[in-house]
Specification:
The chain folds into 2 domains: 138 residues, FAD/NAD(P)-binding domain (3-Layer(bba) Sandwich), CATH 3.50.50.60; 101 residues, Polyamine Oxidase, Chain A, domain 2. 27% of the residues lie in helices and 32% in strands. It has 8 helices and 17 strands. Helix 1 packs parallel to helix 8. The longest helix is centred in the last third of the chain and has 19 residues.
Amino acid sequence: MTTIAIIGAGITGLACAGKLAAAGHHAVLFDKGRGIGGRVATRRAAGLQFDHGAQYASTQGDEFAKVLGKLAATGAVAPWIDGGGQTRCVGVPGMSAMAKAMAQGLDVRQNTLVSGLSHNTTGWHLQIAGVVHAAAHVIVTVPAPQLAALLGADHPMIARVAHVRYAPSLTLMAAINGPAPFISHHDPGADLAWIAQDSSKPGRPQQEGTAWVAQASAGFSVDHLEQDNDTIAALMLPLLCDRLGLTRDHVTHAAAHRWRYAHVTQALGQSFLRAGDASLYLGGDWCLGPGIANAWASGVAIADDLLAHLA
């Protein structure tokens, strides 16, 4: 039996597993994706790379600042001056490096979809590719709207997350030959709410073109959420070219990505949810609010609580 199973190897799951491991407890992380880190992600194309999810980490709180400091000492993160006077913390050579560094030494099972959860007198049972895996404790770190599919819509904990809300985000990744007029631009009222010159971040590959990441506003993202990625790219690319003052013939690569659960707009208001017997925990950035620091804080809080019950 797996004593502790964590569903989701995003920042919350990794933070939780890391804290448990430091206390001598082994947890198995199951993640449906090829990579880990959730929105702390990097994609490579056209000889360049693009942080197409979370753009940076904020040093929010002393404890998380210490974590970033330790990661910086290993070379996994470094400061990035965003052009607006702010110094941000980014993964090196991409944002995904932050998650990979946090996963060092942990038992992570990638490409592993947990399709269902059930509980009886013998414990929890995870359905994975037609095989049942048993666990004494389960920690679920998926986005709140996905919990019902795992636990069942009638599970008593589902009603407790009903008020949690997300905004989607459509992301454009573009390689463009031409002048780079700025490093980053933030305008929440524009269709492209965030634009970043990804090539300006430390440790990024330096090619002839410049890697740009543009993330749409919540309104634009909602309006076009169900379009296919090619259509989304075709809609966003002219907006980016206009903002850069360049024509389409400067573009050598363009692709889009859809983040359905990108930004928490209404959080749970506490670090996690726990079943009365401490056999089931639910957590994620949706508990405390958007951002890597909040996702990390939820995972650490879950680990601390479970350790207290295991003592």
